[in-house]
Amino acid sequence: MSEKFSTVEQQASYGVGRQLGEQLAANSFEGLDIPAVQAGLADAFDGKDSAVSMQNLQLAFTEISRRLQQAQEEAAEATIAEGNSFLEDNAKRDGVFVTESGLQYEVLTQGNGDKPTYESTVRTHYHGSFISGDVFDSSVVRGQPAEFPVSGVIAGWTEALQLMNVGSKFKLYVPYHLAYGERGAGASIPPFSTLIFEVELLDIV
Length: 205
Fold this sequence. Notes:
PPIase_FKBP_N_sf; Peptidyl-prolyl cis-trans isomerase; 7-stranded antiparallel beta sheet; alpha+beta
């Protein structure tokens, strides 16, 4: 048992604090003052009057919300600009095709099997990364091909798969509007991300 928190009550109390701290860390803002948080927690628990008026609390919350929104908008603009710059330069390279939608792709291996349709289900191996080169997902690394309907994936994949013959391997450069858009995908893919995939079409199932 911990020497600092030796009783069950102390350890449980510490656990409550840990949980609150983890929630705060996941939803923090620049300038968050932990002593002020502790003071507010203690005052509320003890039933004391608020040290800050409700009017000032509301003004503070509104201002912090405005700052967070501004920071998100600035981050989104930077991500979009970085992606657009990358795609603009990439489109000039030999061997890169650009479709009407804005999807870019290279043919790494040209297969000679059938092409899937929008209604097909396919088996693929893929390797997904950001334009920085950091990998966010890979069936190759897992050693397990993925099966899914052509209509059930991001728009860039849906379009590209219908261009591929079984046995083909394409490298896709997917603008954010053909990927996960302005919402991103959970914690792994931020909003407005341009993505790169190497996709091997193994079979139509």
